[in-house]
Every structure is written in C-alpha cells, then in structure tokens.
C-alpha cells in the first residue's frame, strides 16, 4: 500500500473510532483492551501534525472527545499520554472554527473508485498524508497500521466536541 493510501486509511480509522465509541461505554472500553499500547494509546501517540495541522486537528479532537466523553478511564489515559496544554490548544482551535463550516477538505477532495484507489488528491493533501504515514511513533514504526482493518473515504465529518454535548 502506498504512503497516501496508508494516510487515508489512518484518517478513515480515526473517523470510524469516533463513531464507534461516541455515547457507547462498551465500545469506549474496547479502546483499552489488549496489551499496551492499546488503541487509545495509539491515538494519543499520533504524529504531532495531527495536533497542529488545521485540517487534521478536528479529526483527532473528534476522536478523543468521542473516546473520552463519559468515560473516566479513557480520559485518564489521554491525560497521562497527552499534555494538557496540547489538549486545550487542540480543543480551542476546533471551538474557534466557524460553526457553519464542517467540511473535511482532505476527504472531500479525494475520490475513491470501486477498487478503493485514490484518483485525485490535491498536492497539499497528498504531501500531508504522505508525511503522516511516514512518521514513526514512539512504540512502533508501523503502529498506525494496526489500528483497524479496512476503510473507504466517506466524506463524513467526525464527531466534534460540539456533538458530544448532551441534548436538552
């Protein structure tokens, strides 16, 4: 699988984790199953670009909020693994984004054919995804491969901190 494909698979995996865990305590617990590093540890150990790039920050923030909302154990893991300053910066930047704009330009600019190969990706997105897929983590140079199996670009935006608010 080429670097771009691995980067897209990682983004789709994060989206899937968001939907899998949001408002579901049993699924949130699954993120802590197994030998360390667990899935929640691997999410916290993503390359710095996920914490700093405006296109990737909402995806990571949505995944972390979905994994931690109402789950003290996951919240504890994230607080141990990621600095509070970095978390606050991540959440503030997502909160300050325009509420009416919910486009994911990386996934929206990507078209997938039946064989799940990328047809068109903008040069900036291509470089970003290649950088993401080439960066090793502290646990394992291939740690992003083991998060989940198969993904297809859906164009859906992950849950954000705003989605996690209780409905009244």
How would you explain this protein's 3D organization?
- The chain is mainly α and 168 residues long.
- The protein has one domain (3-146).
- Helices cover 51% and strands 3% of the residues.
- It is built from 9 helices and 2 strands.
- The chain has helices at residues 3-21, 25-30, 39-44, 49-52, 57-68, 72-81, 84-96, 105-108, 123-134, and strands spanning 111-112, 118-120.
- Strands 1-2 form a two-stranded antiparallel sheet.
- A hairpin with a 5-residue loop joins strand 1 (111-112) and strand 2.
- Residues 1-29 form the signal peptide.
- This is S phase cyclin A-associated protein in the endoplasmic reticulum.
- Residues 137-168 are annotated as: Disordered.
- Keywords: Signal.
Lay out the secondary structure.
Blueprint: H1 3-21, H2 25-30, H3 39-44, H4 49-52, H5 57-68, H6 72-81, H7 84-96, H8 105-108, E1 111-112, E2 118-120, H9 123-134
Antiparallel strand pairs: 1-2
